Protein backbone atom coordinates (compact mmCIF):
# COMPACT_ATOMS: atom_id res chain seq x y z
CA UNK A 1 0.00 0.00 0.00
CA UNK A 2 1.51 3.26 -1.00
CA UNK A 3 1.20 6.49 0.86
CA UNK A 4 1.83 10.02 -0.13
CA UNK A 5 4.42 11.92 1.80
CA UNK A 6 3.38 15.55 2.23
CA UNK A 7 5.50 18.38 3.38
CA UNK A 8 3.29 20.52 5.63
CA UNK A 9 5.93 22.48 7.45
CA UNK A 10 5.05 26.12 7.90
CA UNK A 11 6.40 29.02 9.84
CA UNK A 12 4.34 31.85 11.21
CA UNK A 13 6.12 35.06 12.01
CA UNK A 14 4.55 37.72 14.17
CA UNK A 15 6.30 41.05 14.34
CA UNK A 16 5.30 43.98 16.53
CA UNK A 17 6.95 47.30 15.96
CA UNK A 18 6.80 50.19 18.37
CA UNK A 19 8.64 53.38 19.11
CA UNK A 20 11.96 52.95 20.91
CA UNK A 21 11.77 54.46 24.35
CA UNK A 22 14.52 55.97 26.46
CA UNK A 23 15.03 54.65 29.00
CA UNK A 24 13.98 51.17 27.90
CA UNK A 25 11.51 51.00 30.74
CA UNK A 26 8.08 52.41 30.80
CA UNK A 27 6.17 54.42 33.33
CA UNK A 28 6.54 52.14 36.33
CA UNK A 29 9.00 49.47 37.43
CA UNK A 30 8.01 47.14 40.27
CA UNK A 31 11.12 45.70 41.92
CA UNK A 32 10.83 42.44 43.88
CA UNK A 33 12.73 42.00 47.15
CA UNK A 34 15.15 39.44 45.65
CA UNK A 35 15.20 40.74 42.06
CA UNK A 36 18.44 40.74 40.05
CA UNK A 37 18.38 44.54 40.06
CA UNK A 38 17.62 46.20 43.37
CA UNK A 39 16.23 49.69 43.92
CA UNK A 40 19.68 51.35 44.03
CA UNK A 41 20.76 49.71 40.75
CA UNK A 42 17.42 50.77 39.25
CA UNK A 43 18.08 54.31 40.49
CA UNK A 44 21.52 54.39 38.85
CA UNK A 45 20.07 53.00 35.60
CA UNK A 46 17.30 55.59 35.34
CA UNK A 47 19.62 58.41 36.47
CA UNK A 48 22.08 57.56 33.70
CA UNK A 49 19.48 57.03 30.99
CA UNK A 50 16.94 59.63 32.00
CA UNK A 51 18.13 61.89 34.83
CA UNK A 52 15.57 63.43 37.17
CA UNK A 53 12.61 61.76 35.46
CA UNK A 54 11.92 58.92 37.88
CA UNK A 55 11.21 58.67 41.58
CA UNK A 56 12.07 55.54 43.54
CA UNK A 57 9.71 54.71 46.39
CA UNK A 58 10.61 51.96 48.85
CA UNK A 59 7.53 50.23 50.17
CA UNK A 60 6.61 47.85 52.95
CA UNK A 61 5.20 44.81 51.13
CA UNK A 62 5.71 41.04 51.43
CA UNK A 63 7.35 40.63 47.97
CA UNK A 64 7.83 44.13 46.50
CA UNK A 65 10.79 46.21 47.67
CA UNK A 66 10.36 49.35 45.63
CA UNK A 67 8.44 51.03 42.86
CA UNK A 68 10.11 53.27 40.29
CA UNK A 69 7.64 55.82 38.98
CA UNK A 70 7.96 58.34 36.17
CA UNK A 71 7.65 61.72 37.90
CA UNK A 72 5.37 63.13 35.21
CA UNK A 73 2.66 60.74 36.40
CA UNK A 74 2.89 62.22 39.89
CA UNK A 75 1.97 65.62 38.47
CA UNK A 76 -1.42 64.20 37.50
CA UNK A 77 -2.29 61.98 40.45
CA UNK A 78 -1.02 61.84 44.02
CA UNK A 79 1.80 59.46 44.85
CA UNK A 80 -0.27 57.69 47.52
CA UNK A 81 -3.20 56.99 45.19
CA UNK A 82 -0.97 55.86 42.32
CA UNK A 83 1.13 53.61 44.59
CA UNK A 84 -2.02 52.05 46.05
CA UNK A 85 -3.22 51.12 42.56
CA UNK A 86 0.20 49.90 41.39
CA UNK A 87 0.69 47.73 44.46
CA UNK A 88 -2.86 46.39 44.32
CA UNK A 89 -2.61 45.29 40.68
CA UNK A 90 1.13 44.62 40.48
CA UNK A 91 1.08 42.68 43.71
CA UNK A 92 -1.23 40.13 42.08
CA UNK A 93 1.48 39.01 39.65
CA UNK A 94 4.70 40.05 41.39
CA UNK A 95 7.01 37.74 43.26
CA UNK A 96 10.29 38.40 45.10
CA UNK A 97 12.52 37.77 42.07
CA UNK A 98 10.59 39.66 39.40
CA UNK A 99 11.04 43.10 38.00
CA UNK A 100 7.83 44.15 36.31
CA UNK A 101 7.48 47.11 34.02
CA UNK A 102 4.11 48.71 33.60
CA UNK A 103 2.66 51.23 31.24
CA UNK A 104 0.32 53.64 32.99
CA UNK A 105 -1.86 55.94 30.97
CA UNK A 106 -3.73 58.54 32.97
CA UNK A 107 -6.60 60.35 31.34
CA UNK A 108 -8.12 63.20 33.26
CA UNK A 109 -11.68 64.02 32.40
CA UNK A 110 -13.08 67.40 33.36
CA UNK A 111 -16.65 68.57 33.03
CA UNK A 112 -17.75 72.01 34.13
CA UNK A 113 -20.91 74.03 33.91
CA UNK A 114 -20.81 77.75 33.37
CA UNK A 115 -23.43 80.48 33.67
CA UNK A 116 -24.81 81.78 30.39
List keywords for this structure.
alpha+beta; 116 residues; 4 strands; four-stranded antiparallel β-sheet
As a whole number of angstroms, the C-alpha radius of gyration is: 22 Å
Ranges where pLDDT stays below 50 over 5 or more residues in a row are none
Number of separate strands: 4
Q: How would the global form be characterised? A: extended
Gap from first CA to last CA: 91 Å
- Overall pLDDT score: 86
Question: How much β-strand is present in the residues?
Answer: 15-25%
Structure description:
- The chain has 116 residues and is of the alpha+beta class.
- 23% of the residues lie in helices and 18% in strands.
- A four-stranded antiparallel β-sheet has the order 2-3-1-4, with helices on both faces.
- A hairpin with a 5-residue loop joins strand 2 and strand 3 (64-70).
- The protein is extended.
Quick take:
The chain is of the alpha+beta class. It has 3 helices and 4 strands; from the N terminus they run βαββααβ. The longest helix has 12 residues, at 79-90.
Explain the layout of strands and helices:
Blueprint lengths: L27 E5 L6 H11 L4 E5 L5 E7 H4 L4 H12 L8 E4 L14
Antiparallel strand pairs: 1-3, 1-4, 2-3
Amino acid sequence: MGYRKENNRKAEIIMRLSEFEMPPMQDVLIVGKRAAIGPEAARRMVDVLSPEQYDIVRIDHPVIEAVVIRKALLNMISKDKLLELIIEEGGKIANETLIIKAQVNITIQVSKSIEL
